[in-house]
Amino acid sequence: MKATISERKSPSEGGRKKAPTASSPGTRSESQLVDPAFDQSGIGMALVGLDGDWIRVNPALCRILGYSEKELLATNFQDIPRPDDLGTDPNFISRMLRGESRFCEMERRYVHKAGHVVHVALSVSLIYDKTAQPIFFLFQIQDITERRHAEEKMRHSEESYRRLVELSPDAVLVQRKGAIIFANDACTALLGASSPAEIVGRPVLDFVHPDDREAVRERMQTIRHGTGAARPPRTERRYVGLDGREVHVEVVVNPLIYQSEPATEVILRDISKRKQAELKLRRSEANLAAAQRFAHLGSFEQDLADLDELEKNPQRWSDEVFRIFGYEPGRIDTSAAALLRAAHSDDRDRLRSVMVTAIRDGKSHSLDYRIVRPDHTERIIRGQFDVVHDEKTGKPLRVLGTVQDITESKLAEARLQQANQELAGRVQELQQRSKEITLLSEMGNWLQSCQTADEAFAVIGRSVQQLLPERVGALYILSASRNVVETVAAWGESACGERVFAPDDCWALRRGQPHRFKHDGSTNSCRHTDPASLLESLCMPLMAQGEALGILHLQVPRIEARPQEPTLRYSAEAEERLTAVLAEQIALALANLKLRESLRNQSIRDTLTGLFNRRYMEESLEREMSRAHRNQKYLAVIMMDIDRFKHFNDTFGHQAGDTLLRALGDCLKKRTRGQDIACRYGGEEFALVLSDTSLDAALQRAEILREEVKQLDVQYAGQVLGTVSLSMGVAVFPDDGLTATEILRAADQALYQAKHEGRDRVCAWSSQARKEAHTRETE
Q: If you ran DSSP here, which 8-state letter would residue 194 be given?
């Protein structure tokens, strides 16, 4: 550096330029102002010659470096810096002397006289005379040692923090102004990322569940601005990772200084398992409460702190105990005394004795007793008392008990005793009903197997004769033109009446309800019968989906050898009920047969529902089964039927039934995948073909669909049509059959099983169903 400076020296200076003194012309007044400021400045100041020697130093600089003014003036400014920092000094001095810069700032390390390093902020200015010639440098030096030490400590602190956080099992992130600037490995895994780089820089709110986002945003604003009420130390939120997984977390937020700037530390602890356990616990408690409510069974627990005065020991009652005793849950204090007060005065001593005996003997005891509710009604209660003992000392610790309202069962027992007396007289009638049910079921099975109307008519004639052997009669069907009623089947010895007649000739077809004729003249006879040859007759209309198909006609002919009314196996009312059921089955069977014949002639779509028709489904089923066989995949078929659809039609009308079918068709179209096949199989019966679907998946889909159909809000003519339920049968290829016929039969039999078990359920084709189906087919 000295060589650099010597190149700029003036020959008149003899190798060194002196700083102006206070006595120099034109500088006296300025010196009077500058000198005190120079000496009294709080920062170190010095005038340094162009050769690097100290010209003048102030006391503050002496304090910073530990030297006296005399000691410093005897040195060069390059004697003070640490050797590591010397290499850069000639560079900035050279640039300033070349006129490239008149001012320079930097940080340097100087060596204190005591030997330790002093960190300084150095500002250097080059001072020129009036001829624009440089005369000396002005050094301004500020001690920043403490600041540098603090920064170093902070750097070490941040490094320690990062190492500690990286080892933490909890997810930790640091955010500033809503953006993530640091995340440990646990946080990376929690948020579904493969590396911290995938989440650093992204807004925190990107990972917060939408339902929690507004609350988190408000809390971040409160923390950022330091306003608002004191925030809770822990909160629970839901976060959603990059992989879409929803995680319940416990959040702890701490403000901190990170990388020398304010930031926020967010600790996320995964509590998903705890939340799941809490949910299971709540469900378990709710199920227990529901079970107790349905069973009218309450439970209580009593600690035996005082064995001498048992009634003073507090009890804990379930909500059902309050309800059984006639109170809202929590309305009265619970204790043994309260339990005894609720008992009938005549039963109170017995109850107290049983409780004491249970504790004394350490055995379970039960008692039926009466209680009196606040509204003065009496109920019959069955109490059960069990004692829990200390395993080591044998001392009784607490009583576990139950109270169950058995009033209805007691009343039922009394009614049952009366019913048993009546039952003896009705056994024969019930046996007859059982036979009728069997015959009706058999007829239904035969009718389902019929492919033509003539086959169905023959089955109906044979079945009616078996069910009502004392009656002769005929089955009449309306023609397609609906202006003629024709006999299609007749049975009995001497059925009498017209074989072909107009619909208006029958009162049952006119009125749409059963019509009974008796020879005593109490009712009108139909024109298609001969009243003179009859003792009585019954015309039952065949109604299906609100449409009359014909009539089922029964009669008792007047025969000379049998002038009086014959003795029947059951009353006229019972006969009419049986005939109504028989007519309903016949009507439904004929309607279904007609519908099947119609569907076979239709194209790919069903005009009412817009679903695929049966023919298309059967053709597609063969194709899908071949594909499933090639790919070694499952294929499922779900058959479904609207429960009590005939009653629904009778109640709301045919047009309402169509509205319901269309609504169900729309529901099926919305709830099926593109590769699935939904079709209207016939009447109120539908089918789904689910490709690549196992039995468990098909059952799950069926259950979901069944529940969704129950939620349908179907209206017709401004009237809500009510809740609709489905009975559903499921079969799977290849487990339940290797051909389309086998799979459809299996699903249909499973549907029959669902109907048989009570409707509104899903049944899978099983070995039990197979046995029941075989039994029905062989009967």
A: S
